[in-house]
Amino acid sequence: MSKISVISLGGSLIIPPSGFKVQFLQDFKKLIVGLIKNGPSFASPAGGASPGTRFIIVCGGGATARQYQAAARAVGQLTADDVDWLGIHATRLNAHLMRAIFREWAHPVIVKDPTAKRVWREPVLIASGWRPGCSTDYDAVLLARQYGAREIFNLSNIDYVYDSDPRKNPAAKKFTNLTWTEFRKMFGGKWDPGANTPFDPVAARQAQKLNLTVHILNGVKLTEVRHALLGKKFKGTTII
Questions:
Q1: I want to staple 41 with a disulfide (CB 3.0 to 4.6 A). Which of 25, 49, 94, 106 is the partner?
Q2: How far apart are CA 20 and CA 12, in angstroms?
Q3: pLDDT tens readout for residues 100-130
Q4: How many CA atoms lie within 13 Å of 18's alpha carbon, on the beta-carbon side?
Q5: Residue ranges of domains in the chain, CATH in brackets
């Protein structure tokens, strides 16, 4: 049986506030396709070896979601559901972009409901946001549970988990390893639409229940991403 890795891909990597970085998209595709073609193989129940590298890529909304949410707030009052749905549709737009980029490698249907079992044989499955009240990090956790993945690779624009925002506090402490108890103590347990935390607190609670390992790292630094996906030492934070 092949190994499945879940990647929670931050929306601000897909399209940063300054606009698309086509080179990043090209390099990210090259990395994933290279691992599909040349990654390690795992023994199959029927004997021999099966392709060992498959990916579920869950697309976030990032800056696109926050820009829509900010524009709507500037014009009128929003409910929490309004804020969530704007974010969800941003994730779905980003997911369609990634689905097009990985067309020859990806399952043809984007997953919008992580609780629905889907049979897929392709090396890549693309997923987006699901419903109000949860983030794509939470969706990634549910997909890991659904398909038996044990690790989630959370790619954003930060190098590590810090005890405070390093952009505002030069003395912020970074962590290379954390327990779920330590992480949840720092970031609480409530979902806040549009919040910008290293990993959604609700998703963190579920990940702890499932004994999942989550790696937080800077998705722009694709050498580090490759090392992490291959189980090698990398610059980032591991929560277990």
A1: 49
A2: 9
A3: 999 999 999 999 999 998 999 999 999 999 9
A4: 3
A5: 3-239 (3.40.1160.10)
